[in-house]
Amino acid sequence: MIVDTMVMAYAVLGVPGFGQEALAVLHKADDIAAPASVEAELLNVIWQWGKRGVSLEIAQAVYENASRLWTRLIPVEAVWFTALELALAYGHSPYDTLFVATARYCKTKVLTYDQRLLTLFPNDTTTIKDFL
Fold it and tell me: Radius of gyration over alpha carbons of the chain, in Å?
């Protein structure tokens, strides 16, 4: 499965209302893949979290632990054209369409909480609740 950035972030940060469910996804999924750009996105999420007073050491440990959870990272070069095509056709951010393009490349679906992505790409995405 392709796991989007927020699912991973909710799991590793233990976000109330989402953390336990997102963590269950990581335990259930055999293959946790994403476009390689996910590493920069996760770093940004952890930076935002760190601005709330979390120490650098804790932020580093969270990033390092989370980055080890993906079993496969797909090079952006393999999916960028499809991602751009989808972004232009659907008026949706390429940051998100990279996940859809990666799902198509891997012949699977994106696990996401993103309602707009779920609506625009119903054949390429699935909810966490449906996966569990």
Answer: 14
Q: What is the pLDDT of residues 8-64, one digit of tens each?
A: 999 999 999 999 999 999 999 999 999 999 999 999 999 999 899 889 999 999 999
What is the DSSP secondary structure assignment for residue 108, as one 8-state letter?
S
Amino acid at 13: L
pTM of the model: 0.93
List Cβ neighbours of 67 (8 Å cut-off, separation of 6 or more).
39, 42
Helix (H, G, I), strand (E, B) or coil at 125: strand
* CB 64 within 8 Å of CB 6: no
Structural domains of the chain sorted by starting position, each given as residue range(s) with its CATH number in brackets: 2-131 (3.40.50.1010)
Cβ-contact 96, 103 below 8 angstroms: no
